[in-house]
Amino acid sequence: xxxxxxxxxxxxxxxxxxxxxxxxxxxxxxxRDAILPHFRALGLDAENKDATGFDPVTVAxxxxxxxxxxxxxxxxxxxxxLGEEFGTSAGDSGLTWxxxxxxxxxxxxxxAPTWGVLIALSDATGPRLxxxxxxxxxxxxxxxxxxxxxxxxxxxxPLGTRSTAMLNEAILFTTFPEIGTPEDRVAFERVKTRTRLxxxxxxxxAYALLAAGHIDxxxxxxLYPYDVGGPIAVIEAAGGIVTNWEGxxxxxxxxxxxxxxxxxxxxxLALLRR
Length: 274
Known about the structure:
Pathway: Amino-acid biosynthesis; L-histidine biosynthesis; L-histidine from 5-phospho-alpha-D-ribose 1-diphosphate: step 8/9. Keywords: Amino-acid biosynthesis, Histidine biosynthesis, Hydrolase, Magnesium, Metal-binding. This is Histidinol-phosphatase. Its cofactor is Mg(2+). By secondary structure, the protein is of the alpha+beta class. It folds into two domains: about 15-160, Fructose-1,6-Bisphosphatase, subunit A, domain 1 (Fructose-1,6-Bisphosphatase, Chain A, domain 1, 2-Layer Sandwich), CATH 3.30.540; about 165-274, 3-Layer(aba) Sandwich (D-Maltodextrin-Binding Protein, domain 2), CATH 3.40.190. The chain has helices at about 15-35, 60-75, 105-110, 180-190, 205-210, 225-235, 260-274, and strands at about 45-50, 55, 80-85, 85-90, 95-105, 115-125, 125-135, 140-145, 145-150, 155-160, 170-175, 195-200, 215-225, 240-245, 255-260. An eight-stranded mixed β-sheet has the order 4-3-5-6-7-8-9-10, sandwiched between helices. A five-stranded mixed β-sheet has the order 12-11-13-15-14, with helices on both faces. The protein has a two-stranded antiparallel ribbon with strand order 1-2. Helix 5 (about 205-210) runs parallel beside helix 6.
């Protein structure tokens, strides 16, 4: 049976939480401003960070993370930072901002608006608040510390996951059809063949859709902490569950299962672990 028991989370006073949220939104705003001039710009190129494959990074990735780090230097210099492009900066507050300036750089390069800015604030127990921001569409999904909300072109509304009861009624998303190792792919296929619909290639936007109540499952492998910190906080605040494929905490990355509700999570987890 899955072990969904989470570590005890320390209370964060409302006065501190309000300031932390102000900082999180300031980070997302700064990243938007840094990124948007480059999206769909003619001649945009990328460097490859992976000698054995293709892991692109663009000037927009680096500019966005630097912009967010500048915000933190002004507002929260006591906090740690873990960023995809510029690594770790130590802090002494017990809190760490986990930043992915552009999750889905392949989509960014291709002009597809399924990439996003991922922001999480974590302590020793994992993410406490998170944002998934899509600058081009103007959508922001926020969750944690008592909040679960969406803002976008049609205004603001609460987030909430679906109550889908059975896998044969579920919509499943993942980014890469060849998910993880060959063994990972076999496990993924066990879930896929039992779902109603499977879609590919939406990067972090899939997690946002789950939190907003449009899909039911996201299954991925080979992730890093900055790929999942923000989505975990948003999905959990919306009523969903995110674990690794063994049912434990997922904020360290690796193989991740996000589900709209506990019943659906248990069904998918049993097939992944079989």
